Task: structure prediction
Amino acid sequence: MAAPPTEYEVKAAFIHNIAKFVEWPAVPSSVRSARLCVLGQNPFGEALEALQGKPVGRLNWEIVQADGSASLKECRVLFISASERSNLGRILESIASHPVLTIGDSEGYAEQGVMVNFYPEQNKVRFEINLAAATGAGLKISSQLLKLARIVRPAGGRP
Result:
C-alpha cells in the first residue's frame, strides 16, 4: 500500500490544479513553458519535481528556484515561502500589475496581497483567495475555483 501524500505533495498538486482555473493574459506563441518559481526556502523538497514538464494549458511547467538575480516578473506562478515573510511587501511591490499568480502558505499572506494562500483545516489543506490582488494583476480566476475557496479581503481594503 502506498504511503499517503505529504503535505507538500498535496500542495504541489493543488498548485497545478489551481493554475488550470486561472486565465492569464495571452502569451506569445513562442513561449513554451510556464515558470513556477519558489522564492525563499523550498518547503516542497522534491514534491514539485513531479510537475516539471507537465502540461498546464498549452504550456509545460518549468520549476525554478528564484533568487535575487532572476526576474520574478518572468514567473507565471510564484510560491513565496514563509522564510520571505519580512520581505513580502517588497516582493509584491516588485511584481505589482504583472500577471504573476502569487501563492503562499503562511498565515496572513492573503490579507497582505498574496493571491492564493494555503491553510490547514481539520487535517486537510484548504486555500483562500485574495480576488482583488488577482484582478489587479490582470488574472481571471474561474468561478468554479472561487466556490472552493475562502475569499479574503486585503488588509485595510473596503468590502
